[in-house]
Amino acid sequence: MNQRKHKLNALIENEGLDIAFITLPKLIYYFTGFYSDPHERFMALVCVKGEEPFLFVPVLDHEKAARVSSVKAIFSHKDEENPYAVLKTHLGSHISKIGIQADHLNVKRYLALMEITGAEAAIDIEPMLNSIRRVKGEDEVAIIKRAIGCIEEVIRTTLPLIKPGVTELDIVAEMEYRMKRLGADGPSFDTMVLAGEKSGLPHGVPGNDRVREGELLLIDTGVFVDGYASDITRTFAVGEISAKHKDIYDAVLQANLRMIEAGRPGVAIGSLDTAAREVIANRGYGEYFITRAGHGLGLEIHEYPSIYGGNPDPLIEGMVYTAEPGIYISGLGGVRIEDNVLVTANGVEVLTSFPKELTVIGG
User: Fold this and answer.
1) Is residue 292 scored above 80 in pLDDT?
2) Residue 190 neighbours by CB distance under 10 Å
3) pLDDT tens digits for range 48-80
4) pTM of structure
């Protein structure tokens, strides 16, 4: 926490800020150890140049914040109060330039902060915050590994229950029950179980469609453990599938392996996408690879970096990202194989260990 605080102070100094407002709950947790979802209420970590930061929270979170936060100065507001008027009483004068999270702060809150500070300018500090947290420490990697172990055990223990005739939602319910039983905070995103033709929808929604013999079943799932996410996708064969299905599966598997092989510190992030895309294109399925090849993973399920072909930023030791090429064919189905990957000093370490070879289920 102290190292993170020093980096935050350096950001404020380097950008010439008088004050910065961290408003994304996950980032407040990152810098303080305190997490809460304030819903519609205003909450912020307030970082004043040259001073100790303070937390500004709804009064119902005050006790918890005081108990777990590394920040000792905590102020709160009641539901019947104007939070910005209360916040103003804790701010100094002569504020000229503030830092905000533009991706998270809505216009109403931005205008309110500009009014109470009297600032002449505001800058988006999101890119600098991403730079601070893009490299995971050993403690963060250890938690991510626990989150991966949890979700892999969920998949492993759920698969024997999947038979032709069960619905997608049956499987979702079983998996999310097991997540909690195994100690997860909860799913890191809406559990995706897609049967048959629906596996060809990159962001399909589970429903009452039933698992059928001779079709594919795609499961994209993850959990939060101590605030950190896992994210894994595996695609299964329900009984005997067609030669076309098998060819698609093998193309995606080879793309996944090639993408992982291409990772090492210093290479352009976009080159990972290119490596996977070339494999799939050479197999004749290029037009069906319609998503990016992956994304960063940590406190959020989607964070820096975005792995797309045009991203020139370098991979850096300590980054954690997903490798998830896919083929999605309308009317036939789709395959996605997703791993979680850590950049090491000399290459990468694949953190996920669930088998990737085509697995037949439902017998």
Assistant:
1) yes
2) 12
3) 999 999 999 999 999 999 999 999 999 999 999
4) 0.94
Q: Is 87 helix (H, G, I), strand (E, B) or coil?
A: helix
Alpha helices in the chain (DSSP H): 2-14, 25-32, 62-68, 83-88, 107-117, 126-133, 138-158, 168-181, 243-261, 269-282
Q: For 241-280, how does the pLDDT look when each residue is reduced to its tens digit (9 = 90+)?
A: 999 999 999 999 999 999 999 999 999 999 999 999 999 9
Q: How far apart are CA 5 and CA 132, in angstroms?
A: 10
Give the type of residue at 197: E
Residue 313 has phi, psi (to 5 degrees) of -60, 145
User: Phi then psi for 329, rounded to 5 degrees?
Assistant: -120, 115
Quick one: CA torsion of 129, 135, 141, 147, rounded to 10 degrees?
A: 50
Q: Return the number of other C-beta atoms located less than 10 Å from residue 160's C-beta.
A: 10
**Residues counted in the chain:** 363
* 15-41 burial: b if 16+ Cβ within 10 Å, else e: eebbbbbbbbbbbbbbbbebbbebeee
Total H helices, total E strands in the chain? 10, 20
